[in-house]
Sequence to fold (138 residues):
Amino acid sequence: MAGSMNTTGVALPGTEPALRLVPMPADANVYGDVFGGWVMAQVDIAGSISARRVAAGRVATVAVTSFAFKEPISVGDLVSFYSKIVRIGKTSITVGVEVFAERHDSDLESVVKVTEAQLVYVAMDSKGKKRELPKGRA
Fold:
């Protein structure tokens, strides 16, 4: 997921984020660091947005194959979740998600990659059963 460089040298994906949020105090511990579970939930949502487009409908998360926290996220950071389709199978979609935080500490502004993950989703029918993906979707 290569894209433009910002002033801090971090390569940003060249697409629009799947999801963009600002965490609030309720999302963090007493030190202002955002809970990992909050980040994981948002990564799952961002990944599912891309997977739903490929599946042309309902999907369910079936696996998290990797998840790495690289830097903490703080209350007030602008957090952007970029998703990219990694693999499309017969019924499943593997999605990579990269997370960047725009920090605004006093006069300093920086963007850092804070998390990366890979998740697998499966296409579901209206009864919650696995189904094949539509042909020609990408």
User: Anything to note?
Assistant: The chain has one domain: 19-123. The two ends are 16 Å apart (CA to CA).
